[in-house]
From TrEMBL:
TPR repeat boundaries on the chain: 162-195
Species of origin: Flavobacterium qiangtangense
Signal sequence extent: 1-18
Pfam families: TPR_14
Domain of life assignment: Bacteria
Classification via InterPro entries: TPR-like_helical_dom_sf, TPR_rpt
The name this protein goes by in its record: Tetratricopeptide repeat protein
Keywords, in A-Z order: Signal, TPR repeat
Alphabetized SMART domains for the sequence: TPR
SUPFAM superfamilies according to UniProt: TPR-like
Length: 281
């Protein structure tokens, strides 16, 4: 009896081992675009929720839920019939769990096509506009490294496409390539010197390049052209932070005054600047 029990346990463990090797839950959703994916099981039934990942240019990365499946002792994927008619769509956020890409060889077992017919409703010709939108969505979820590829492709086509220079410079700043961000933004400002977001990003680049005087000049210009108090407060706060760290009290006080002028009293900028003032005193 013990031998049979041992054999059953071995077969069960081998089946689990095969599943784990076939489904590697190591992919982020933005790495799984236009693929069928499965999420790790989170119940005692050992069922895997699965569906299709695609990019909706207007809404962002999306999970189209198809159903759930289990894996039998032979490693075959068995789709749950009761979920066949379920159609749930979920927008994906940065905290989405990692997932596994379902091998193409298993799609027949799940009775799903490699590319769903409805996907063409979300596909359009690759233009500078669609490339910028993809870069925007990738930046938005914190995947700026991945955003660089579509944004650079768009930049070659039309560097002054609406929103492009900001998204590209943002991606460069987010990935620590501050000098590249400067190069993009300087050209952007020559083309459009009234966009305060360019000044905001350029000042941030200069701060990280340890060029506070350049950052100060840029932030002053940005505050002059901006009509958005929250953006003015952010630029002033970033500059105040530089002088707080270097303990230059007079320069800090100059920029702290600007923060208080533009920031909502209940904002984190206003609260933090008060803490900094007390610390310096």
């Amino acid at each position: 009896m013990k031998r049979y029990l041992f054999l059953i346990l071995c077969l069960f463990n081998l089946s689990l081992f095969a599943q784990e090797n076939l489904l590697k839950f190591d992919k982020n959703f933005y790495e799984s675009e236009d693929r069928w994916v499965a999420f790790p099981p989170n119940d005692e039934e050992n069922k895997y929720m699965y569906g299709f990942i695609y990019l909706d240019n207007s809404a962002g990365f999306t999970f189209h839920y198809e159903g759930s499946f289990s894996v039998d002792s032979n490693g075959k994927f068995i789709s749950d019939e009761k979920d066949k008619n379920s159609r749930i769509i979920r927008r994906l956020e940065p905290n989405t769990r990692k997932m596994a890409i379902i091998p193409d060889s298993k799609l027949k077992e799940l009775e799903v096509p490699k590319i769903p017919d409805w996907l063409e409703n979300y596909k359009s010709d690759e233009t500078t506009e669609t490339l910028v939108r993809k870069g925007y969505h990738l930046n938005h979820i914190g995947a700026s490294t991945n955003a660089l590829e579509p944004l650079l492709k768009a930049y070659k086509l039309n560097p002054h496409e609406k929103g492009l220079e900001f998204e590209l410079s943002y991606a460069y700043n987010a990935t620590g390539e501050f000098q590249k961000a400067v190069e993009v933004l300087e050209k952007a400002l020559k083309n459009n010197p009234k966009d305060h977001m360019f000044y905001r990003e350029l000042g941030y680049s200069y701060i990280n390049l340890k060029k506070p005087l350049e950052a100060e000049k840029i932030f002053k210009k940005g505050i002059l052209v901006s009509s958005d108090d929250s953006q003015k407060a952010e630029m002033a706060y970033n500059m105040a932070g530089v002088y707080y760290q270097s303990k230059e009290k007079s320069k800090f006080e100059e920029w702290a005054k600007q923060v208080k002028k533009f920031a909502n009293p209940e904002s984190q900028y206003a609260k933090n600047i008060t803490l900094m003032e007390n610390e310096l005193k």
